[in-house]
Design brief:
The protein is mainly α and 272 residues long. The chain contains 14 helices and no strands. The protein has a domain of 100 residues: Leucine-rich Repeat Variant. It is elongated. It starts with 23 loop residues before the first helix and ends in a 5-residue tail after the last helix.
Length: 272
């Protein structure tokens, strides 16, 4: 149902073929007219329209006023769908990040305060994927979401977005230190380490906390710590004793294999 539109939905309909006249005005007209009771034919038409943008046949260059109108629509449902559509297009265009106009950025930022967790999640996703990366002015809002949002997925995407910041602010670094030091919050430690598996950390203090996480009692935390160490590479060489301990004695066969792979990667001689 269109009410549950999220960034994975388009993949179910990649075979759809749309005519060149399709645009987001038509898509949002369907959303406003039919709401959550969208017919099968209308859903198919919406997927056809999205397919044009995901394949590059159409761009958002002339569509920003339409997107802004939907993002600021009085209907929470329309706002939810607008942010999901924008996030979907940006995910499928990740190889060539899209630059957002300032007006659109402000409207997406306002969606951080929406009641719908799905809407908040997609709003953060839009910022994480846009050309130029996370603006410095957005970092405090992301930290709020990462620390205290009631939605698990919202906290996770906010953590991912913060990890993508190439030069972390002192506030972000402090958040990493606090998160990895909170033994009672296994979920947060796991989310942070999961993000580090995609974005290598360079701060020596953070690297040491990642290495320390290899001792964690929780299997998921240890698994994500191994992935983070692999992403760091040679600067995490001090992890070798703990990785060998996991390889030789951990009760989980998968972790033992992952540790062996990490050992090979970070102890390999430099490429010539």
């Amino acid at each position: 149902m269109i009410g549950s539109l999220n960034v994975t939905m388009v993949f179910m309909f990649v075979a759809a073929v749309a005519n060149a006249q399709a645009n987001l005005s038509e898509l949002f007209s369907i959303v406003r007219t039919e709401g959550s009771t969208t017919s099968e034919g209308s859903r198919k038409r919406m997927f056809e329209i999205l397919e044009l943008y995901s394949t590059g046949e159409k761009t958002l260059a002339s569509e920003w006023p339409v997107i802004d109108g939907a993002l600021g629509d009085p209907s929470p449902f329309v706002r939810d769908q607008a942010c999901a559509v924008l996030a979907t297009i940006m995910v499928l265009s990740a190889a060539s990040p899209i630059e957002l106009p300032e007006s659109t950025k402000q409207l997406v930022l306002q969606r951080f305060s929406e009641a719908s967790p799905n809407l908040r999640e997609n709003a953060v996703r839009v910022f994480a994927l846009m050309a130029g990366g996370i603006p410095a002015a957005v970092v405090p809002r992301l930290l709020q979401l990462a620390r205290a949002d009631p939605g698990f997925n919202v906290r996770g995407i906010a953590v991912d977005a913060l990890a993508s910041v190439r030069v972390p602010t002192p506030e972000i670094t402090n958040f990493w230190v606090q998160s990895l030091s909170r033994e009672q919050d296994t979920s947060l430690r796991g989310q942070v380490l999961h993000a580090f598996g995609f974005y290598a950390q360079t701060d020596p203090e953070i690297i040491q906390l990642i290495i320390n996480s290899l001792r964690d009692k929780d299997r998921f935390v240890r698994q994500e710590a191994i992935a983070a160490v692999i992403r760091i590479g040679k600067p995490a060489l001090a992890a070798l004793p703990l990785l060998r301990g996991i390889r030789d004695a951990d009760a989980d066969e998968g972790l033992r294999l992952n540790a062996e792979g990490a050992i090979r990667i970070i102890s390999a001689p430099p490429a010539k």
